[in-house]
Amino acid sequence: MELSELIKQARAMDCSDLHITAGTEIAVRRYGELKILDAEDDYKPTLLEAEAMILSMLSDEQKDQVLHGNDLDLGLMAEDGTRIRANVYHQRNHLAASIRLLSSEIPSIEELGLPRSVLKMSEERNGLVLVTGPTGCGKSTTLASMVEHINATRESHIITIEDPIEYVYGHKKALIHQREVGKDIDNFANALRSALREDPDIILVGEMRDFETISAAIAAAETGHLVLATLHTSSAAQTVERIIDGCPLDAQNRIRVQLANVLKGIITQHLIPRADGEGRIVATEIMINNNAVSNHIRENKAYMINNDIQSGFQIGMHSLQSDVQRLLQYGTVSRDYANRLLQS
After folding, report:
1. CB 159 within 8 A of CB 179
2. Which of these, 41, 195, 239, 304, has the minimum number of CB atoms within 10 Å of its CB?
3. Cα separation of 216 and 238, whole Å?
């Protein structure tokens, strides 16, 4: 079986991820659950077939890197015209690949089932908006939907900094430049500093991984740009703590004050299997920066943000717990999965 056929079959099964491991069965992730495909149905390629499928994704330069023992992240267009994101690595002295199957079209904010607060955040003219959540919860898709909303409604210059590029945007009202770390620029922090000299209105940062990137993103937001970024955190309060803790001790007070001033909001999301078995639905926590939130960030009281969210319902805030309860009330998700999320 060729890789293109395998990707086509995985998409037909509505899978989000595909795992190829030389010498064993193919595995897929569907609606958040991992499934090893039955070897009797020709889903167990030989060792050489599996390695050939993996290497077929790579350029000669990338093959050289991988064959010299390096792991590799890449984003590329599949033969059917859809995009995939892949990580190629070694295990037990053989090749393996984890492939994320990206949607061929960018869904709208409404189609994703996100609250109106997300739409409003994408219409901000400056400041910092963060999309957070665990791996595989759809952060990149939410960011893409926000960028696409801006693209359709606002004449602006958007610069994205990604590792790797996932969604590709066509020009509508906006001019969009997409830069890939490792190809177009060496790292996120340098790309952010360069972006400030490239006349941007909006900057998308694939992930704020370190102090240099955090500092550069906040500086960009301070100078009048809208910065959209992601973090692997599970709540608004944890997001603020992660940003501060990621900074050197002598810089934490400065970052705390800057963050309190530039932060517009935090969207935390999780994907929960639907009760009817037809896919997954997003549950969110929305934090919008107001005087109370800003003061608690500045005073190093991030643990109080949960209370601010509870009392901010009228301006569009809500907790993850309340959103899960809403989905339970309408019978959209099962109580088992809802409780599992709330207890994690």
Report:
1. yes
2. 41
3. 20
The alpha carbon of 216 is separated from its chain's Cα centroid by a whole number of angstroms, namely 19
Q: What strands, in cross-sheet order, belong to the sheet with 263-273? A: 175-180, 157-162, 202-205, 226-231, 127-132, 263-273, 280-288
Which amino acid type is present at position 335? R
Which pLDDT does position 41 carry in this prediction? 56
- Entry pTM: 0.90
> Which tens digit of pLDDT belongs to each residue from 15-35?
999 999 998 899 999 988 999
Regions of the chain where pLDDT drops below 70: 39-42
The whole-chain average pLDDT of the chain stands at 93
